[in-house]
């Protein structure tokens, strides 16, 4: 089979190598999956750089989220077990963690329904307790993680303000359903959010960016608001001023979705059932902006790492080079 390998750490476009190799052999409690679609996530870039929470031994195959088929014909969503990741024709996953792929979504969409939407669901509902009628502020609203939060916020009955970088991403955010869009390249984010909320600020802030985005969030979060820290795509981990949280009466809550997989797997299954129901109703539908062949995986991961994409980029091992779109 063909698989991408990372023999050394560095930028994805420089270190990923497409090679011919043997199919991986599943261990106890694991299954072999024929990959139908592998969604590109920012953690794939971090893995290549050696900057993720886990550091698989070199060489490894990145690709943390797939839709595929098991030997008994089930169409499933899975998080591959490294070093046998999803940017390959076959991957390995834990049998107990497989989820049924929603019938309402095609392979690329199904692959993208997992990590980003689970993170959004747990962040907005379990950690922030988002209520209908509240205002939700989403940073990087046109990206893979942000677009999921926008759709989930709208499905929950919230008013959603999206922060993006550039006119094209602003267009995408509006099409996703944002009630207001702020272009951080052209607008004063804090002033724009306060203006859009009549000076009150956002009840819930969803921040996968960190850095300057977090600083802006703290300045425009509402009284008794909840600031959900999801990640640090900017590369800068903020140092919150706790005296500021005290005098403004807002909460700072963290969300590391992966912990639920080990500490509360039942909650992950319950969340997937709710996401599947939302997909069946058309309330959520992953925004797949690019479908690329396996040969294009390294370039795709690099574009995601550089923040040059909207929605999700999905690698389709069965797609020929000339059919990418």
Report the biggest beta sheet as strand number plus sense, adding barrel if it closes.
Answer: 7 strands, mixed
Beta-strand content = 15-25%
SSE sequence, one letter per element = EHEEHEEEEHHEHEHEHEHEHEHHEHE
> What's the N-to-C terminus distance?
24 Å
**Which stretches are low in confidence, meaning pLDDT under 50 for 5 or more residues running?**
none
| Total helical segments | 12
Helix content: 25-40%
| Strands, count | 15
Estimated structural class: alpha/beta
Mean of residue pLDDT? 95
Describe how the helices and strands are arranged:
Blueprint: E1 2-5, H1 12-15, E2 17-20, E3 30-39, H2 42-49, E4 66-70, E5 75-78, E6 90-94, E7 99-100, H3 107-111, H4 115-127, E8 135-139, H5 144-155, E9 159-164, H6 167-176, E10 180-183, H7 189-196, E11 202-207, H8 212-220, E12 221-229, H9 242-248, E13 251-254, H10 258-263, H11 265-281, E14 288-293, H12 297-305, E15 312-316
Parallel strand pairs: 8-9, 8-11, 9-10, 11-12, 12-13, 14-15
Antiparallel strand pairs: 1-2, 3-4, 3-6, 3-15, 4-5, 5-7
Helix pairs in contact: 2-12, 4-5, 4-11, 7-8
């Amino acid at each position: 089979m063909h698989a991408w390998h990372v023999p050394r750490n560095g930028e994805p476009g420089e270190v990923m190598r497409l090679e011919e190799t043997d199919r991986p052999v599943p261990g106890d409690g694991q299954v072999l999956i024929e990959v139908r679609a592998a969604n590109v996530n920012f953690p794939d870039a971090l893995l290549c750089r050696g900057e993720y929470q886990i550091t698989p031994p070199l060489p490894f195959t990145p690709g943390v989220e797939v839709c595929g088929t098991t030997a008994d014909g089930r169409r499933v969503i899975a998080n591959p077990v490294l070093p046998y990741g999803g940017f390959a024709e076959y991957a390995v996953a834990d049998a107990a963690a497989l989820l049924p792929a929603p019938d309402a979504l095609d392979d690329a969409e199904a692959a993208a329904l997992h990590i980003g939407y689970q993170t959004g669901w747990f962040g907005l509902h379990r950690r922030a307790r988002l209520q209908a009628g509240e205002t939700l502020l989403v940073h990087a609203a046109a990206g893979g993680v942000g677009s999921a939060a926008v759709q989930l916020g709208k499905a929950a009955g919230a008013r959603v303000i999206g922060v993006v970088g550039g006119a094209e991403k602003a267009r995408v955010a509006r099409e996703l359903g944002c009630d207001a869009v702020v272009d951080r390249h052209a607008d004063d984010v804090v002033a724009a959010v306060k203006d859009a909320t009549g000076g009150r600020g956002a009840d819930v802030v969803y921040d996968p960016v960190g850095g300057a985005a977090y600083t802006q969030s703290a300045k425009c979060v509402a009284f008794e608001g909840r600031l959900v820290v999801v990640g640090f795509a900017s590369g800068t981990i903020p140092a919150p001023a706790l005296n500021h949280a005290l005098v403004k009466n807002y909460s700072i809550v963290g969300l590391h979705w992966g912990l639920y997989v080990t500490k509360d797997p039942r909650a992950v299954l319950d969340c997937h059932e709710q996401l599947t129901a939302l997909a069946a109703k058309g309330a959520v539908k992953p925004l797949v902006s690019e479908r690329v062949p396996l040969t294009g995986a390294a370039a795709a991961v690099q574009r995601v790492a550089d923040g040059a994409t909207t929605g999700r980029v999905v690698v389709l091992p069965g797609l020929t080079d000339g059919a990418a779109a």
